[in-house]
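Supplementary Note 3. Input sequence used for the single-chain structure prediction.
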Amino acid sequence: MKILGVDPGYGRCGFAILDDEKLGRFGVISTEPGKNLADRLVELAGDFEEILKTENPDVVSIEDLFFVQNITTGIQVAEARGILIFLAKKAGCQIVEPKPVEIKKSFTGNGSANKSEMQKMARLNFGLDRNPKLDDATDAIAAAFFAVRTVRLLEN
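The predicted structure, written as discrete structure tokens, is reproduced below.
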């Protein structure tokens, strides 16, 4: 089973592929900061569609939103997330929507793990030479990891 983990965002959107529990391609889709939101969403959608076509995942695990202080940014991330869910569903993928605390607990054993703990677990779980560079990619790896466990439970 191939899983695409996603840490949604409109400026930086993390993605990671787990294929039969082996980490494949991972990274970040970045959009141009000077553009307006609509143009950035179009750019994000195009890049995400390319990943869906190239990787052909069975499942997309996209992190649910957690609003902190900036409601405007939260709304913009929600708009990006909606586009990503739409495209994944249109591509025929099963959707898993874990909350950030569920992802952290599944990945590290600690629902309030910090970024460095998440990066360390990505390196240890998948035998990486070093920690992933960007938090967004790490969170996407962890989202995919969460889905492996969730989908397996649903199948049994």
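Helices lie at 37-55, 71-90, 100-108, 115-126, 135-155. The two ends are 15 Å apart (CA to CA).
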